[in-house]
Write the structure tokens for this entry.
Amino acid sequence: MADAAAPGEGARPALAPGVRLRFDDTRQAWLLLAPERIIETEGPTQDILSRCDGVRTIGEIIDALAGIYAADRAEIAADVLALVGELAAKRLVRL
Amino acid sequence: MSGGAGAGLPAPLGLLAELTHRCPLACPYCSNPLALEGRAGELDTAEWARVFAEAAALGVLQLHLSGGEPASRRDLADITAAAHAAGLYTNLITSTIGVTPARLEALRDAGLDHVQISIQDSLPESADHIAGYDGAHAHKLATARTATRLGLALTINAVVHRANIARLPELVALAAGLGAGRVEVAHAQYYGWALRNRAALMPTRAQVTTATAALADLRARYEGRLVIDAVVPDYYARRPKPCMGGWGRRSLNVTPSGRVLPCHAAETIPGLTFWSVREHSLAEIWARSPAFAAFRGTDWMQEPCRSCDRREIDFGGCRCQALAIAGDAAATDPACALSPLHATMLDLAAAAAAGEPPPYAYRGRQPKILERSQQT
């Protein structure tokens, strides 16, 4: 559905209700916990999810990642918007 | 690595805590055993808290507070707080009877992450008839709305069978209207109470075919709004489900009195020895309990599983179903087309679905004298 999958840079994404991001000591990995779902997160996905706090805008998250990865902002922006849209469609993130 | 199962064993991901077998409802497909445990033997709050701490140390991530009806326990908020304190993702599986808005708010404040509510049908009268409880449906709808108002994530679970399978689209629409983020469409699983009620519950193949097509349409229609998960209709399958993700591989089930089972129906299998959290730590049970070792891995398998290239994909299917149909818990699940009993299982389904459905045998509604003798 297009309504959930088209975030703009001004949106302030947060983890959806019932979704938790935590570091698991047993498996030494960051995990996204959701109803009947456990997803291991790493790299850029983890960098984005850890900033989905309902406070930062997508634009600010893009700026942060462009800094971390010393990459072209437009390229990072496309990736972040696509990922946040996908996570929102799966109801793991709300906008 | 800290914690975990050690010795090359994977750490379990989930634990289902049957806090009590007491329940005001009497659903004819209840997953509790035919011999329900009584209140006197139930683990107390402190015992559950210890189990949760041990589970978290073992690597368990998600906890399902189930029953019976977990709200039948007055200490449910304390139990929830203990689970949250242990760091577990905590899911309440409830019929909602006994869950008031104030109680639900207390559970949320205790750290509850998610609520799963079962809906028996989209038609209130039919729903209450299936649950064996007048007014259950209306209470479920009201509580579901309270859950989403409180900001709790909500899953609606719909067990489908002959009496409601035609209204799958209405059930999913109802869940969407209640604000659920996820729907579980679960064909009845024929062990225990559902096996006893098989002739009343089994849908026809035509009904299952229609429902499967409807499910595909519903997934497309609700994409991005509602996650729809499905539990397959075993009797009409060609491949068995990877039951529990493999025996003793991902999950534990703790009964009200503390016996630890590889799955909720495992006590139907004769000859298995279950250890209790009252005598062993959860880590010991996971690693060394005879019941967990019995069907772990692939060494126990017979042909055609033993040489099958899917043996570590579906793990031979469901042990309880193999027992129920083949009379041997180590046999290939007859849901598999490679089982010599696959045609027999289809015949059983056809025969069960052909006749007029008999009345339900409701759980917990036997004559009192029988109930008492079962608990001794």
